[in-house]
Automatic annotation (TrEMBL):
UniProt keywords, alphabetically: Cell membrane, Membrane, Transmembrane, Transmembrane helix
Localization annotation: Cell membrane
This protein's record includes keyword Amino-acid biosynthesis: no
Protein's UniProt keywords contain Cell membrane: yes
Membership in a protein family: Belongs to the chromate ion transporter (CHR) (TC 2.A.51) family.
Entry-linked Pfam families: Chromate_transp
GO MF term set: chromate transmembrane transporter activity
Name of the featured protein: ChrA protein
Domain of life: Bacteria
Amino acid sequence: MNMEKQQTENRLAYDTQQGRWRAIRETWWTALQLGLTSFGGPIAHLGYFHTTYVRQKKWLDEKSYADLVALAQFLPGPASSQVGIGVGVMRAGIWGGIIAWLGFTLPSVVMLMLFAYLMEAFDPGAAGWIQGLKIVAVAIVAQAVLGMAGKLASGPIRAAVAFAAMSVVLLWTSPVAQVTVIAAAGALGWWIFRKKQGEEEAAPKQARIPISRRAGLVCLGLFLILLLGLPLLASLSSSTGIAVVDSFYRAGSLVFGGGHVVLPLLESETVANGWMTKEEFLTGYGATQAVPGPLFTFAGYLGMLIQGVPGGILATLAIFLPGFLLIVGVMPFWNTIRTHAKLQGMLTGMNAAVVGILLAALYHPIWTSSIHGSIEFVIGAGLFAMLMFWKCPPWVVVLAGAAAGQLLL
């Protein structure tokens, strides 16, 4: 009863002009606090969101939150950020979604762009702490693979899908390999993993979405226009800025699962294009583990190395824009599709493939660029144990890795 009463008050507050501004301000400060304190990656972020938005603020109920998480996992893009955007939309409309994203993202973007600026004074190949950060990336991704495999690739069929995805991505070195693997896994999941909805299961409570279906279709149309049009525009232009927007928008559009899964896509878009060295790339990825907020803010660091402050801003906006357009575009139709059994099956297949793709990324480029001998392996194993068994915060592991790397010199 208290939950329903609070939600009724929230709706009434939003239905007045003064209430809308109050909802937007409250959304901003809440998201900013989360952006400053949410360490630990996407899964941890979802836990922080649940505590804040469901238990403390009571902006939505348990079932609505769980379904919103499932929707974000199904769509390409940064899942935890999309959940935050979705909560902002439900709380204060389209501006609420924008403010929720900005508050959650801004702190880590600023930190990582500043780190990239300081990096210009260092030679990545000569600094031991840089090597330490590269080894941190091994431990972080290994933990992510292990955690995701237990939930998303359990059982013989899903494990086989993950293994096949890993094999294809490693052996077929093509830009379309990952997209093809995810699409094939989704089609397989649609057929094999579809779930039958129990007749006795009660229909979920209808969520209030203050966005029209027309606005949702506009967002979905814009997503497709940019996805298809930016590569053409980049091919016709010599502008580095357009090339940056194209590369990072495509990375944000084609990654399922978010977080660490974007690593191989970004590596192929930046290192392969000659915008930076593999050492600079992995150093920034290690540093990203030490800051709160979404892992997609890694784009701020990469863009900063490519084209300074404008590049950092463009890369950040470009990588988050697809996920924003998709979650906002789909939410008006959410109440209709949230219990679709075959879509849940498709998601199951895609998630298993994501585990395989991330395992491939753990081997190359992360392991092959970071672990060169017994000493590096021992350090990496120790950092992994700190994360996995001793439950140390990621920023502690980052500092330990940097210190251990410095001792290698």
